Amino acid sequence: MTAQTAKESNAMNAGVPQARHRKGALAAIVATAALALSACNGTGDLASYDLPAKSARYTFESETNGVKTQWEYVSGQPTQGDAPQQNPCMGDTVGDNTAACRPEPLIFLRYDLGLALDNTAKAEEKHTITITAYYQDRISAPPKVDVLTAEASYDGGHTWKQVSTQASGTNTFTAQIKNPDVAQAAQGVGLRVHASDTKGDTVSQTLPTAYKLR
Q1: Which of 177, 132, 125 is nearest to 150 (CA)?
Q2: Of 173, 190, 188, 205, nearest to 35 (Cα)?
Q3: Which DSSP category does 157 fall into?
Q4: pLDDT (0 to 100) of residue 62
Q5: Rounded to two decimals, what is the model's pTM?
Q6: What are the structural domains of the chain?
Q7: What angle do CA 1, 72, 12 make, to 5 degrees?
Q8: Which of 41, 62, 112, 145 is geometrically suited to a Cys-Cys bond with 133, CB 3.0 to 4.6 A?
């Protein structure tokens, strides 16, 4: 994870010039896309980082089972806590940090690929998938994801083609993919999705093989 400002780029756990630091906690649920967060410290799906107190734009990258995800978001030292008692911050749980904390505003993606029982879709037909963006439950007032675009690949990610998307509900979008014949997509259909919210935070996710054709 890196913090990007106009003057510097700070690597995770590297020294930073600010005198004050805060401890932020990231928690991620492994969802349909088999997404997991890796971290410098922590176990399971919970990780902690020392971040500068000054607000900055961060880039966080993850790769799990070939699924690549990149988040860009703005984070700064919170002035008040934003975590319910039933799901407290890690510092509250272990008792080593009682400063105000909140989850980072990462956008996650959930896919309904509309596949048959054998996880395939029909070749040479238009195919509709549904993509839902969401945040960690601990964020009390998450922003709205208002833009989502998608691309499809039929050659293992060498080339990508824009597909039609449209909003179908709150933080929910549909994408129309024109499936080629099986021979043209021998490795299956890959997806590359980019979403952004009303605060300018973004997520880009690449699924090398989202589904196969029959």
Answers
A1: 177
A2: 205
A3: T
A4: 95
A5: 0.75
A6: 2-94 (no CATH), 108-213 (2.60.40.3550)
A7: 10
A8: 145
**Which among 92, 93, 101, 97 has a CA at the least distance from the CA of 139?**
101
- 125-169 confidence digits (pLDDT tens): 999 999 999 998 878 789 999 999 999 999 999 999 999 999 999
Buried b (16+ CB within 10 A) or exposed e, 101-132: bbbbbbbbbbbebebeeeebbebeeebebebb
Residue 11, classified by CB atoms within 10 Å of its CB into exposed (0-12), middle (13-18) or buried (19+), is exposed
Q: Which two tokens stand for residue 96?
A: 């080593």
Strand order in the sheet with 21-27: 21-27, 46-52, 42-43
Q: What pLDDT was estimated at residue 96? A: 61
Q: Residue 113 to residues 22, 121, 161, 164: CA-CA distances in angstroms?
A: 40, 9, 18, 15
